[in-house]
Hints:
The protein is of the alpha/beta class. It has helices at residues 16-27, 34-44, 47-57, 64-75, 94-103, 119-127, 166-189, 202-218, and strands at 5-9, 30-33, 85-88, 111-116, 129-132, 138-140, 158-159, 193-197.
Amino acid sequence: MALPRLVLLGKQGAGKGTQATRLGDHFGVAHLSTGDLFRSMAAMGTAHGLEAKRYMDDGELVPDELTIGIVEECLAPGGPLSDGFVLDGFPRNLRLAQELDGILDGRPLDLAINLDVPRDIVLDRLAGRRVCENCQRVYHVNMPPTVDWTCDTCGGKVVQRDDDTEEAIDRRLQLYEEQTVPIIDYYRQREMLTEVSGVGDGDEVFKRLVTAVDGAHRCK
Ligand SMILES: [Zn+2]
């Protein structure tokens, strides 16, 4: 049986990155964020990869056109996504979802998973987050460092980042929803979407995801 081709969608704070890594390991496929794709193509020295690197070095968003070019390179034979994959954070808008389908023409996605966590829970997770200024280790107000907001790993100061205030998080979630609802609708109409609850223990959530993938994959 061919290896699964998956898209994992979910809000910031839904645990998407962690679960994408676990799914990739479990199914023996590459689990890559868009940033990883850019970096891997830049490291291979492809024209698209080097152009994307320039945008990233300047702290700018890599344009859709270039992003899709890179995804196409990664999906080509010998590329990091040529067999199975878990895409994390891609597609980031409806246009890219449609482009991806075009590229995958011969062998479409097995499943797009929406890892669903209600907004108030995500808000609570993110607003309680504290980060070491020095090594970036992440803590939570409910699980602080042992000694007075001093990093257990490096002794650095553990703080709330400027973009982790409730207002800033709320704005990011709003923006995410505006961009993602059309993607979710698109996959739903094409009967490629599964909703999986991301609430609760990480191991439980992972089991739900594996069950969803196994179910969809067997139908092929
Ligand atoms: Zn630290």
